[in-house]
Amino acid sequence: MNDNLVDIRNARLSFFTPAGEVKALNDVSLFVREGEVLGIVGESGSGKSVTAYSLMGLTAHPGRLIGGDLHFNGHHINIMTERELRKMRGNEVSIIFQDPMTSLNPVYTIGNQITEVILLHTDKTKKEAYERARELLQLVGINEPERRLKQYPHELSGGMRQRVMIAIALACEPKLLIADEPTTALDVTIQAQILELMMDLKKKLGMAIILITHDLGVVAGTCDRIAVMYAGKVVECGSTDEIFYSPSHEYTKGLLQSVPNIYEKERKKLVPIEGAPVDMLNPPAGCPFAPRCHSCMKICLKQMPGYTNLSDTHYSACWLLDKAKFEKEGEARNG
Amino acid sequence: MLKYILKRVVLAALTIFLVATITFLLMNLVPGGPFVAEKSISEQAQQALNEKYGLDQPLIVQYKNYMKNILKGDFGLSLKQRGRTVTDIITSKFPVSARLGGLSVLTALLIGIPLGSVAALNRGKWIDSVIIVIATCGIAVPSFVLCTVGMYTFGVNLGWLPTFGLTTPLHYVLPIFSLSFYPTAYIARLMRSSMLDVIGQDYMRTARSKGLSQFISLFKHALRNAIMPVVTYVGPLLAYTLTGSFIVEKIFVIPGLGKEFISSISNRDYTLIMGTTIFLATLIILMNMLVDIVYKLVDPRIKLK
User: Fold this and answer.
1) Nearest Cα to B37, choosing from B66, B76, B79?
2) A105 vs B210: CB contact, 8 Å cut-off?
3) pTM of the model
4) Are B79 and B271 in contact (CB under 8 A)?
5) Residue B239 to residues A265, B146, B243: CA-CA distances in angstroms?
6) Contacts of A107 in chain B (CB under 8 A)
7) CB spacing of B213 vs A86 below 8 angstroms
8) Contact list, A58 vs chain B (CB under 8 Å)
9) Which end of chain B has the least Cβ crowding within 10 Å, N or C?
10) Does B221 touch chain A (CB under 8 A)?
11) Would you call A95 and B225 a contact, using CB atoms and an 8 Å cutoff?
12) A102 touches chain B (CB under 8 A)
């Protein structure tokens, strides 16, 4: 054991669907230190959200954790009962979701939905909880909190609702905030505001954040470290600078090339990653990215590469980095 | 709110007026009359009766007189039940039907809502299939079959339950069973599908992520959202069930309004037909208004205009 806030080791999680087993998480290892912001990037279905949900014990049926260990804040998630998990959820770890329009219950007031979580996890009286809810709304930058508490979700704008979601998530001052695509459903200007708010609150409250997104622009300015996921695996992980300035995995490189840059003088054509995401029901035998990779070698199709450490913080799973194996392959080709 | 209610009341009055007019015309279009019977009465006697009740006058005059009277709250004398006013009949029979109907609707709600919810929460499992089968049967089997089968098994063969009248609480069991089976099944089906819809909603995921127990997140967050279709259905259901069912009242020999309603038609008891129709129409309008208000209470997004 080390003292990381989150420590996920070799997590394997599968959805047992009628069509067959879908390996949503295939040997995922990640850690988050206290007060750190980890970005998880990857395309739809790469296992970003599943990783986060499994950390809260919220894996949806028919998903099941079939291997690995999940540690959070001294808890061993694997062996926790539902009752213990409930005590932890909303209290030590909270989550905000992608769509604030549908994530709040339409038939209860904002005040009701914020105080609910406070009353559940603390000994506060109704009055104190209400007072706390008012503070929280102020904290997330909502004006006239007194009036807002009495309003219903449909009376608030999208950005406002996401602020309310953040208020609910932070109500019990969690150690970890999971933000699952928190800005995807919002206007670009509102996106920036919400991200700024989150970073501001992180400074004030000191919690760690896992920021899940498929938007590299979002992680660039906010995260300390980034994990890139593809087909249920972490293919590359490093500090934000390392990922942006010296990406080593072909998938990461591809992602970076497909980001538009407004500072570029000349208009470069965006380079898309060709091919389609992996069919998770029948994943390829070797590296899952191999079929779409420009530098694919024979071994890539047969065997999954292990991690190569590029620095203390930076590691990547690609045969190209595995010098020894790479040379052997070269010899085999020449010989 | 006040403006809304006022508007609804005006509309209701208009609707009732139209219902009364149309019923009056249709009723008089149907051949026969209250004093035409197999046992032919003498010409003079018929003439005398028609004169007494004003049926010898032109239709338009009859209509005017009737409307004038009901505005004064006078629904007239029953043409067939000698000496009883229509108001009298309705006020004496309605409470009987209403008590039975009210209890039946309550039963349907108390069984249908949990049944539908349980089915939704166990979607695809055996218990869901069992509930679906029961609900489908409930919708397919007509009430007279339920009445007679219930009567035969529990009343005649087993001798557990009385088969007619409404004197003791036990007397209520079979009629309530027959009356509530269909609505129970219908409510269970409504509840199952709306519950399935609601438990897939994002806010249910939020509720779980807050650390709420399954029970609370279902009771607080799901039920209130899932109950809307049931509210819609229960309004008119109440109106129809409170005014009594002809079949159930006939089979179990219950002195209720449902029987009066049907027999008044075959008897051509013009004043009673008008009275019961207007009463039912008013009740339906009232229940729909009630549904709208309950709607607003359950879902704040609904605006009453």
Assistant:
1) B79
2) no
3) 0.81
4) yes
5) 74, 22, 6
6) 224-225, 298-301
7) yes
8) 205, 208-209
9) C
10) yes
11) no
12) yes
DSSP code per residue over A183-207: TTTS-HHHHHHHHHHHHHHHHHH--
Beta-sheet strand order (sheet of A20-32) = A20-32, A6-17, A63-72, A75-76
Q: Percent of chain B having pLDDT more than 90? A: 28
More confident site: A323 or B257: B257
B303's tokens: 């605006």
B136/A contact by beta carbon, under 8 A: no
Residue of chain A minimizing CA distance to B123 = A61
Residue A262 Cα distances to A227, A259, B184, angstroms: 24, 10, 62
The closest CB to that of A56, out of B209, B224, B225, belongs to: B209
Residue with tokens 């409404």: B166
Residue A335, pLDDT score: 42
| Look-up of token digits 């069930």 | B241
pLDDT at A132: 93
| φ/ψ (deg, to 5) at A105 | -75, 120
Nearest by CB: A106 against B210, B212, B301: B301
Contact A217, A244 (CB under 8 A): no
Q: Is A236 exposed, middle or buried (0-12, 13-18, 19+ CB in 10 A)?
A: buried
Q: Is the dihedral of CA A247, A251, A253, A258 positive or negative?
A: negative
Three-state DSSP state, A10: strand
Tell me the per-residue pLDDT of A73-116, one tens digit each, with 9 for 90 and over. Answer: 888 988 888 899 999 999 999 999 888 889 999 999 999 999 99
- Interfacial B residues in 46-65 facing A (CB < 8 Å): none
In chain A, the residue whose alpha carbon lies closest to the alpha carbon of B223 is A107
* CB nearest to A95's CB, from B209, B224, B300: B209
Percent of chain A with pLDDT over 70: 93
pLDDT value, residue B240: 85
The DSSP string of chain B is -HHHHHHHHHHHHHHHHHHHHHHHHHHHHSS--TT--SSPPPHHHHHHHHHHHTTTS-HHHHHHHHHHHHHTT---B-SSSTT-BHHHHHHHHHHHHHHHHHHHHHHHHHHHHHHHHHHHHTTTSHHHHHHHHHHHHHHHS-HHHHHHHHIIIIIIIS--S--S--SSHHHHHHHHHHHHHHHHHHHHHHHHHHHHHHHTSHHHHHHHHTT--HHHIIIIIIHHHHTHHHHHHHHHHHHHHHT--HHHHHHTT---HHHHHHHHHHTT-HHHHHHHHHHHHHHHHHHHHHHHHHHHHH-TT----
Q: State residue A324's pLDDT score.
A: 57
| Interacting residues of B63 by C-beta distance below 8 A, sequence separation 6+ | B21, B24
Distance from CA of B206 to the nearest CA of A (A): 6
CB contact under 8 A, B206 and A117: no
The residues, any chain, with a CB within 8 Å of residue B176's CB and separated by 6 or more, are B100, B103, B104, B107
Chain B: nearest CA to A10, how far in angstroms? Answer: 24
CB A30 within 8 A of CB A195: no
- Chain A positions touching B213 (Cβ under 8 A) are 86
Which chain B residues in 193-212 lie under 8 Å from chain A, judged by CB atoms? 201-203, 205-212
Cβ <8 Å between B212 and A86? yes
Tell me whether residues A89 and B210 touch, CB distance under 8 A: yes
Token pair recorded at residue B287: 């229940």
Structure confidence at residue B156 as a pLDDT band (50, 70, 90): confident
